[in-house]
């Protein structure tokens, strides 16, 4: 089966590509990023098209060329760059998603899988948890673009019968990420210490931020795509990783247990802490578990272990 993965040379996208190739799919990766170092081990097995999600002709051309049965839409701008440049974020995230949906409609693509985020939440949360029914009032422009994208997907599902489905990720942890994110400390404390560099944790030690390992994130996207159509009722799903989430201090202790020489200190960034404090409620992913069998494979300790093993085994990917 032919599939298209937007953001396919990136962090989660490359792992989705890896899963799909391993099971025999004909995969095309679409990305504005010219670097394919995360896919070097798949040379000759993956077609890579360089293109811009914000350019409709690029998206149309890619979809027309590979005629996918499904599109895994993971491309876009992340939180900090989005807040720094809302116009570029709207073009990449909101218009990019519209272009993917419209191209899917025009070329009869059967299914579109979308990567959303718990950053669609944030303001006026009155419950003691975040679930699929929690009011979506984001704090960041990034979250605004993702809410809009989810709603566009639901519109295309209702009006045109497009099988649109989405996952709302927590903070994704994995090696090699250079783009700053609000909660990137969860990954950078492991990677920086593994490289022998000191790291400053900019949150309070008791902060418990929901996270998910990048391999689980990719697996969630593929699992959602594999679920029978009749099982999908909620359409856009919260998915959770380790629960309860480890505190920042517990994470530091795990890193130091694996890397005894790690140099880590706490110095709180009050602005970031204020944003993070609205996103650290427990995640209820019971509908994802019920409707399509979601369950993470990596707890926090295993995340740290596998993260360090990835850096050792594949340094060329993450340099």
Keywords:
globular; 11 strands
The CATH level-2 architecture of the domain at 2-173 and 211-242 and 281-297 is identified as 3-Layer(aba) Sandwich
Strands side by side in the biggest sheet: 3-2-1-4-5-6-10
List segments where confidence is low: pLDDT < 50 over at least 5 consecutive residues: none
Spatial gap, N to C terminus: 33 Å
Describe the structure.
By secondary structure, the protein is of the alpha/beta class. The chain has a domain at 2-173 and 211-242 and 281-297: Rossmann fold (3-Layer(aba) Sandwich). It contains 12 helices and 11 strands. Strands 3-2-1-4-5-6-10 form a 7-stranded parallel sheet, sandwiched between helices. Helix 5 links the parallel strand 5 and strand 6. The longest helix is centred in the first third of the chain and has 21 residues, at 86-106. The radius of gyration is 19 Å and the shape is globular. The model has no long low-confidence stretch (mean pLDDT 96).
What is the topological layout?
Blueprint: E1 2-6, H1 11-22, E2 26-31, E3 46-50, H2 56-66, E4 70-73, H3 79-84, H4 86-106, E5 111-117, H5 141-160, E6 163-169, E7 171-173, H6 185-194, E8 199-201, E9 211-213, H7 214-226, E10 236-238, H8 248-258, E11 264-266, H9 270-277, H10 286-292, H11 300-313, H12 315-318
Parallel strand pairs: 1-2, 1-4, 2-3, 4-5, 5-6, 6-10, 7-9, 8-11
In short:
This protein is an alpha/beta fold. It is 43% helix and 15% strand.
